[in-house]
Amino acid sequence: MATSPRQKLRTRINRQGEPGDVDGELKKVLAKDSKAQAVWFTKAVKDACSG
Fold it and tell me: Is 18 helix (H, G, I), strand (E, B) or coil?
């Protein structure tokens, strides 16, 4: 069975913190400089929208 883009994103987020740890992910992203945040955002959108 194929993994949906949403499932892939959730798995990646879960690896970065507690399951559903959106606050933890947000803190990590906000700790980055603006260029690194842009890179993270671009990758997150690409991962979420790819299928």
Answer: coil
Rounded Cα gap, residues 26 and 3, in angstroms: 24
Residues 21, 28 contacting (CB under 8 angstroms): no
CA torsion sign, 24 to 26 to 29 to 30?
Answer: negative
Q: What angle do CA 44, 23, 34 make, to 5 degrees?
A: 50
> Which pTM value belongs to this model?
0.55
- Amino acid in position 27: K
Q: Which of 23, 6, 5, 25 has the alpha carbon at shortest distance from 15?
A: 25
pLDDT reading at 25 higher than 90: no
Q: Chain-centre distance of CA 7, in angstroms?
A: 11
